[in-house]
Amino acid sequence: MKRLLKLICAASFAVAAACQSAQAQGPGINPQAWGAYKAKFLDASGRIVDDANANISHSEGQGYGLLLAYLADSPADFEQIWYFTRTELLLRDDGLAAWKWDPAVTPHVTDINNASDGDLLIAYALALAGSAWNRSDYIEAAAKMAQALLSHVVVSSGGHTLLLPGVSGFDSSDRKDGPIVNPSYWVYEAIPIMALLAPSNAWQKLSDDGLSLLRSMQFGPRKLPADWVSLDHMPEPAKGFDAEFGYNSLRIPLYLVRAGVSDKALLSRLRQGMTAEDGTPATINLASGKPKTLLSDPGYRIVNDVVACVTDGTKLPESSQQFEPSLYYPSTLHLLGLAFVGEKHPECL
Predict the structure, then answer these.
(1) Active-site hit among 50, 77, 117, 227
(2) For residue 314, which of 60, 166, 241, 308 is within the disulfide window of CB 3.0 to 4.6 Å?
(3) Is 343 a catalytic residue?
């Protein structure tokens, strides 16, 4: 276990500073920003509240909450979020988390299927916190989830290693146009840590094939990926879903830069494609290339700002540097962006 802790410390930029000293502060989220975030989104029970989605909670939000609590160097908040996660969502018999919890319905879990991005985020945050705070129980829980992911949703199909969005409903046995993937579910920074927790060559192939597929997903005049993609033959927007670069896909560039992906052509294409004429990020109708919803919230704008920092050295505008929580999702992206720039590109602040 101690060797695993050391390996995880060495593998992740986010945990490196905390591993160096027991007194180390969080790598990138200041107490004021974290305090504002948790005051708005962290329920006393330990659940992260999605206030733009009928105040439900989900495995993605719990994973983000754990990661942000780690980045804020807040073990007490981390444990609170983890308690809710393990007691209310880790109910499946395969080691993965049920994805949807609704306070207005009893029983609260209204969809027992998992969401693989949430599982990845939970396992990743547990591994980082376990390494930084010498919590072997967190590492053990992370290893179990990594193995469950490897066993149930990391699959080989058509010569590629893929991440199914969930155990049920997305494979070729479930749909005629399957497998279906969501490119934004690849949390690239987490994958090397999963390979330490549950060793397999499949993890590296998952990362490599995810990037290769992402480069090939150039749909419509703006050459953007869809939120949901069929890989039955060649990649194409999946039937039954809106053919759009939507709220899911907006986080892809942030995931790429946080993982150290330095493909300027890919990052620039995504940034340009998701930006309306006035410079505002937007969801995009893939067929027409026209913006569907303009997203002026600083938490969405920071995605483009971080990409500009990484590719061109552009400083973040003041609006992105100042954090005030708005809605759950953009506020989460905002803190992840600030944490990354503070750690890796302080020259952009």
Answers:
(1) 117
(2) 308
(3) no
